[in-house]
Amino acid sequence: MSATDLFAAVRNHEAIRYMDKRRGHRFVPPKADTRKVPDLYATGDAPMRDATIWLHYFAGGCDWWIAELGAPEVLDDGTVSWRAFGYACLGDPGLAEWGTTDLFDLATTLVPIGTVRGAVIRNAVERDCYWTPAPAAECIPILRHRAG
Fold first, then answer.
1. Which end of the chain, C or N, has fewer beta carbons within 10 A?
2. What is the DSSP letter of 71?
3. For residues 135 and 53, is the Cβ–Cβ distance under 8 A?
4. What is the number of domains present in the chain?
5. CB 54 within 8 A of CB 133
6. What's this model's pTM, rounded to 2 decimal places?
7. With contact defined as beta carbons under 8 Å apart, do 73 and 6 qualify?
8. Residues ≥6 apart with Cβ < 8 Å to 102
9. Helix axis angle, 3-12 relative to 14-23, nearest 10°?
10. Nearest to 107 by CA among 4, 14, 6
11. Using an 8 Å Cβ cutoff, are 52 and 135 in contact?
């Protein structure tokens, strides 16, 4: 299966289409945006704070800043994985870290943001549709603070 076919499979997956309706926009960025993002491990030994953050996803107090993007791939069990490398903060900046995440999983994740009368309220992870690529040290709050 070609990379183009895999991207189409990810974009058209039933769960992602359902979540896209819920969030009001497509989780998967336009091809013009994904073509600019370096492949996984392409930035090598460059300092992470200098890495360009190409995509940003968020939900509640959680953020995912994406610096590298792999091609979607079919795993041995038949599921599709779409790995990305970047910086994730799941609400506690002290525990935030660089690492890989599966955007396919993230696209269908609901993040708890509070409770109402004992019921947990959850939001879909959203793509920041107005994101402008920038160096990590300029756009990730904890890194911006450390630079000052």
1. C
2. P
3. yes
4. 1
5. yes
6. 0.83
7. yes
8. 81, 82, 83, 84
9. 60
10. 14
11. yes
Q: Which residue has the tokens 């994740």?
A: 109
The DSSP annotation for 23-64 comes to HTS-SSPPHHHHTTSPPTTTTTTS-GGGSEE-EEEEETTEEE
Dist. CA 114–CA 132, nearest whole Å: 29
Phi, psi of 146 (to 5 degrees): -65, -30
Measure the CA angle with vertex 147, ends 99 and 46; round to 5°.
45
Number of residues in the chain: 148
Question: What's the rounded Cα separation, in Å, for the pair 28 and 57?
Answer: 10
pLDDT of 100: 95
Residue 144 parent element (H or E): helix 141-147
Structure tokens at 21: 């309706």
Q: What is the pLDDT of residues 72-85, one digit of tens each?
A: 887 787 777 889 99
Domain that holds residue 15: 3-147
DSSP category for residue 82: -
